[in-house]
Amino acid sequence: MTVAVDLRAALALVGTVLRYLAVAFVVPAGVGVYYGETVVPFVAAAVVAAVDGVCLGSLCRGGGGLGGRGAFLPVALSRLGVALVGGGLFLVAGGGGLDAAGERAVVVTRGIMSRGATVIEEFDAHSRSVLMWRQLVQWLGGLGILVVATAVLSELSVGGAQLMETETQTRNVNKLTPRIEETARIIVRLYVVITVAQTAFLYALNAVGLAPHMTLYNAVAHAFTSVSTSGFSPEPRSIEAFAPVVQWAMIPGMFVGATSFVLIYYLTRRDVSRLRRSEEFRFYALVLSVFAATVGALLVFDGTHATVEENVRHAVFNVVSMLTTTGYASTDFNAWSSAAKHVLFVCMFFGGMAGSTTCSIKMVRWLVVAKAFRRDLFNAVHPDAVRPVRLSGSVVDEETVRDTYAFVLVSLVLFFAFAVFVAVDSARVDAGIDEFEALSAAAATFFNIGPAFGEAGPMGGYGGFSEATRLGMIVMMWVGRIEVIPVLVLLTPTYWRR
């Protein structure tokens, strides 16, 4: 049997990604030098990444091009390879209470997948440089998914990802410019500029005396993980450790990170009309507002926090954080009422806009599903009517509607199956995890959100879960972060046959 996929070309591309990763270790190494900490883990990891990258590039030189079908393989392998190489750093760092199995599994994989959950319990035991590496890998993960979303997934029509072209009124979203390399550079520049702006905004609060704890280190660290909608924080109590003004200031960063970067690109070109015509953006803002208002009303009614401002702030912040799959927390929402927690749980299933750094199902898919379902109800009453699904004024073809339905269905089935596995395995080891906690942990990992409820709550971690469950979480994070379909496609025999 002849393999239909050019393995050499795919592995060569993975090698290129690893060579770029080697350069990234310069940042935490610089932080280590500044604070007088050891840089051995970063040098060792950089060498491993560089050598692996060069070897893959040399051994796989001469491969052909990657067509649409062949692109599935490097998309899946590159994130897995980066997570494995990045995990080696924690083996070298060792000490300080790092749980070698758990922290490699959860920190690095969540970092590369751009989500913020951890098994670290004693943050003070770890160096500033290692904690900055946790922030940086999330920032890189967010950038990586942006490039993949705009350059690969939309062209492969993954689970309705081609909707991004319809929604942004772009004939070919992966070609904002004639050359894909220039498109990637535009995305990178936008990403860097937004990160720098968020850093400056946060540090300015310190400069004017409103946020004394928001040092330059913390400003950079939190800008990395708000724009990338990730959620790791060097602080054990997450954003609760900062003044209320900081919590308000973090909300715009998360909101922008969950907005389509294609739309942001056109806004930089002063083309505001695309944003005004975007149904997905309006739906995103509406859903976020409804959930924030609902949770806020529940907190005020229950008198959860001392003042109305506190209730509103924590409601808005945590709804934005969960809905955009960021994973920050401004308070321990485990202490909220059951109603408020369940509304927050539902937020996990939405995600931001297509073409953003977020994960989960994403707004555009829910919007198409809602429109298609409404159309189906209409056709049930008027069977002879022809009523196409429209998005921002453009007709969505029926194949795309079916792709979207399939993606949502497969995502929900995988989520429920994994939730059952978490509940059963937790009962096997007597971990004390109830059904709601199992559901939330499954959603938080598969949809790459970060904190869940109960043991894995915002001020807790995943250290209480069994190794089998944590291994399953790694797999589900990987599958969920790259839009499910690329990994599932690799498991089909027909993908490998010519």
What's this entry about, in short?
The protein is an all-alpha fold and 498 residues long. It contains 21 helices and 2 strands.
How would you describe this protein?
With about 500 residues, the chain is an all-alpha fold. The chain is about 65% helix and about 0% strand. The chain is built from 21 helices and 2 strands. It has helices at about 5-25, 25-35, 40-60, 70-95, 100-110, 130-155, 165, 180-205, 215-225, 245-255, 260-270, 275, 280-300, 310-325, 340-345, 365-380, 400-430, 435-445, 465-480, 485-490, 495; strands at about 390, 395. The chain has a two-stranded antiparallel ribbon. Helix 1 packs antiparallel against helix 3, helix 5 (about 100-110) packs across helix 6 (about 130-155) and helix 6 (about 130-155) runs parallel beside helix 9 (about 215-225). It is globular.
Keywords, separated by commas or semicolons:
mainly alpha; 498 residues
Low-confidence segments, given as residue ranges, are: 95-120
Cα-based radius of gyration, to the nearest Å: 22 Å
Encode the helix/strand succession as letters. Answer: HHHHHHHHHHHHHHHHEEHHHHH
Per the principal axes of the C-alpha atoms, what is the gross shape? globular
